[in-house]
Amino acid sequence: MVSRVIPVQPFDLIIFGATGDLARRKILPGLYRRMVAGQMPQDARIIGAARSALTTRAFRDMIREALETFIGKDKLDEEIAAKFLSVLDYVTVDATGEDGWDELTKKLAKTKSQTRAFYLSVGPSLFGPIAARLHETGIATKDSRIVVEKPLGHDLESARALNKQLSDSFDEAQIYRIDHYLGKETVQNLMAVRFANALFEPLWNARHVDHVQITVSESIGVGGRGGYYDKSGAMRDMVQNHLMQLLCLTAMEPPAQFDANRVRDEKLKVIHSLEDVAREDIVRGQYRAAKDEPSYVQDAENPDSLTESYVALKVNISNWRWSGTPFYLRTGKRLRARMSEIAVIFKEPPHSIFAKLPAHQTNALIIRLQPDEGITLRMTIKEPGPGGMRLADVPLDMTFADALGPSAESMPDAYERLIMDVIRGDQTLFMRGDEVEAAWEWADKMLNDWTEQGRKPAAYDSGSSGPEDALGLMHRDGRRWREIEA
Ligand code: NAP
Questions:
Q1: Burial of 110 (0-12, 13-18, 19+ CB in 10 A)
Q2: Is 242 one of the catalytic residues?
Q3: What confidence tens digit (pLDDT) does each residue in 90-121 have?
Q4: Chain centroid to CA 230: how far?
Q5: Sequence ranges of the binding site for substrate
Q6: Which of 190, 182, 167, 250 shows the shortest CA–CA distance to 214?
Q7: Contact status, residue 39 vs residue 6, Cβ threshold 8 Å
Q8: Which one of 3.40.30.10, 1.10.10.10, 3.20.20.70, 3.40.50.720 gives the CATH number of domain 11-149?
Q9: Which of 135, 211, 242, 272 is catalytic?
Q10: Which residues are annotated as a binding site?
Q11: Does residue 51's CB lie within 6 angstroms of at least one atom of ligand 1?
Q12: Domain 182-405+433-475 grouped into CATH 3.30.200.20
């Protein structure tokens, strides 16, 4: 299977915070890979902006080093790397001061007709001031795009304030809120599997689906980010955004068309249909110390911390399609493996004609985000060979690396894909402001209750699959979590 690369129109991409971690680790290496794939047009310009006083040459050196580190020195195509670096420019700009704005204006005046996108790879407190400045100075034209990424608020109130700051200077159609989970190949494939095949959609409802499990598990702890993480926790850092997006794409109705607002309308309806989560349906945890690794509270440098590094919950969706089919979500740090998946577990057949045989597993569709992106359908078949009827559970595996062959290696990573969507002006894989607010409204009820209760999350062993109580959450309903394994 050959993947087609469709070049985008010429653009100016201005990256605020171009000297920071996200820009060096993800954004700029991603753009280099798009150039390798032939998607970057001749006249593209990438302008880095930050307070550090760097010449363009010093900035190019910095990014050369980043490419060597994050792509690999031996994997770089020297000719393309040189061409890529020549596209880079740099302006010293202080987002909150006067320095650099005139220079940036002058640089952009040369290419007024090109698509213009501003990627704000800076702390969220700078989103509002930069948006306002881009508007006031006229640097942002009415077709310009602005890109922001989590954290998009800390609660409903702050999310509303941020949306207001952005919408004071940009129309909603110009605002691209990134959730990089939506840029993953499998996540988009979930939509293709559901809506481009006749096979699954008739089964995709409470009559046939027993329950859905969504897991985002990390094996590392919060490490050096402990102080920052302690103000956030698993609900704010993962559930309100990434797991919520996965839930929406799994549960939403088919949109009339695959376009940005229709898809986002359907996702929003799912969030509005979420029931409040009962206290007994939530388990929060903090990891214990391991042999050489500190505990969560040591990492957070806060012995009294009430912040969760793990959360599991059961949520019901009150609508015709899903009433009676719970969705179980869990995410945590320092767990057994790094693994993310959506598992749709189907019901037992209505009557078993093989009643005398040992119980077997029910059908399941597993959408794996990491590692090894792919989709597996778990089926029961007759065990091959003589000796009468015995049943065996087998996976029908569609690991993309196998199905796509060598072209899978050049599959763009989430950031690459999403940045190219920004340039193309396609908002389908980006969150709309009302979605973000609705997700906060739902999460806030739990967050406020936890603050009121003031209870410490349960301790769990590092390298385990989470607190004991999380197992109970499933067992109580006669179900069990899938194994966390890489
Ligand atoms: P970072 O490493 O601290 O980089 C921040 C960047 O902002 C630096 O380039 C800094 O450069 C620039 N900056 C700071 N103050 C500025 C000002 N007043 N005017 C202009 N530039 C300024 O942070 P990061 O990890 O790259 O994260 C950037 C944003 O992405 C944050 O909102 C973060 O939450 C989000 N994010 C990051 C990741 C990740 O993997 N890193 C993942 C998801 C989301 P100077 O000091 O030279 O000005």
A1: exposed
A2: yes
A3: 999 999 999 999 999 999 998 877 899 999 99
A4: 20
A5: 180, 184, 218, 237, 333
A6: 250
A7: yes
A8: 3.40.50.720
A9: 242
A10: 17-24, 51, 150, 180, 184, 218, 237, 333
A11: yes
A12: no
Q: Do the first three CATH levels of 11-149 and 182-405+433-475 match, i.e. the same topology?
A: no
Give the pLDDT confidence of 339-377 residue by residue, as tens digits: 999 999 999 988 888 877 777 789 999 999 988 888 999
Residue 50: C-alpha distances to residues 65, 119, 228, 442 (Å): 18, 12, 22, 36
Residue 480: what pLDDT?
94
Nearest residue to 298 (alpha-carbon basis) of 349, 393, 290: 290
Supply the pTM of this predicted model.
Answer: 0.95
- The minimum-distance atom of ligand 1 relative to the CA of 19 is 9
Sequence spans of domains, the chain: 11-149, 182-405+433-475
- How far apart (Å, rounded) are the C-alpha atoms in residues 233 and 226? 10
β-sheet bridge partners, residue 368: 341, 374
CA of 160 to the centre of ligand 1 (A): 22
Is pLDDT of 228 > 80? yes
Q: Which residue lies with its CA nearest to atom 1 of ligand 1?
A: 20
Say how far apart CA 130 and CA 132 lie, in whole Å.
5
pLDDT of 409 strictly over 70: no
Residue 387: its pLDDT value, please? 80
Q: What is the CA(157)–ligand 1 centre distance, in A?
A: 23
Pocket lining: 123 vs ligand 1, CB cutoff 6 Å: yes
In this predicted model, what pLDDT tens digit does every residue of 3-35 receive, in sequence order? 567 789 999 999 999 999 999 999 999 999 999
Read off the pLDDT of each residue in 430-445 and give the average, rounded to a whole number. 98
